[in-house]
Target: Alanine racemase
Amino acid sequence: MTPARAEIVVDLAAIRHNVRVLRATTGVEVIVVVKADGYGHGMAEVAGAARAAGATWLAVATLDEALRLRAAGDTGRLLCWLTVPGEPYADALRAGIDVTAYSVAELDEIAAASAHAGAGLTARVQLKVDTGLSRGGAPREAWGELFARARAGEEAGLWQVTGLWSHFACSDEPAHPANDQQEQAFRDALALADGAGLHPELRHLANSAAAILRPSARFDAVRCGIASYGLDPAPGHTPDLGLVPAMTVRARIALVKALVPGDSVSYGHTWTAPTPTTVGLVPAGYGEGVPRHASGVASVGVGGAQRPIRGRVCMDQFLVDLGPGDDSTPQAGDEVLLFGPGHHGEPTAQDWAEACDTISYEIVTRIGGRMTRTHVDTDPATRGEPATRGKPR
Ligand SMILES: *Cc1c(COP(=O)(O)O)cnc(C)c1O
Model:
């Protein structure tokens, strides 16, 4: 098999393990969030792994993602929450997807779709309330009208209100006062909905950080994205649950060369060798989603040690400092681990996030471009076909 120039390898056994850990830790339904191509891990493959680990519910952001997941064969409970006027609600209805309404206007659109979708089908609608993020969801002053309309539509047989939910702004800062305020606001919304005659089966508020750190916010279900991928939702606060990062990004060194003191490296000559050293050319750059912000600040794993990136990350390539040349200096063709679970001394996506002043979510979601992505299964008990070796993304 030809070694890949630069590739993403996703371990589906890690996804299954993480979902099981989250189910055991929270004791409630875990809605595994697979939006944005499964945070860069592959939506359909992650969905399959999550279902295998017992996830009754999955969630994506857009209706388009939900329909693609159905087209890929997923048949379980599936929630989406981000639409614009005119989206194909009738398709969602026929595909048994739970859509989210933020407003009466959205309910009216769903009602029209419901009328056209044919007899015997009832739309599944979840209501989202804004409890303080000021993003999606009905603002507090609109809750009464939204709930009244939702209940009226339910009585008219237009839909079934299957869920009521909201989303935290600051759950990665567990001591932030907004968390208590939002949870209280959510309880207010639940009481108001109950008074309006709505009794949704699924009440949910927590994302990964709150699911782990805030037991009072678990309600009927938690929505776990980042933790399902094995990454830390609240660095510095999360207890060690043994989550395993599922994504490894690796490349082969294209060229190794010696530098003498005074040689400068890459565009802008932002780094100059102070002493004799060797550099390795890594054939991945911001065209593969390697952040340009990693220039001169992130490290990669080579031969079990972490080695610094020197100079600017380019579109297609960057340079890693391999140290003074000797017999043990890596050669062209040797492997470089950009990030992974850390089992071989390589940095993690969290290390990259800290170096680049961002969050691990952005690191894993943006990586890709020209890299191939392969799904593997390290669990000997379920190791089957070598899933999708080297599939172009
Ligand atoms: C992305 C998202 C999640 C998942 O958040 P994590 O922090 O990755 O667990 C949950 N709910 C909503 C509304 C989201 O947009």
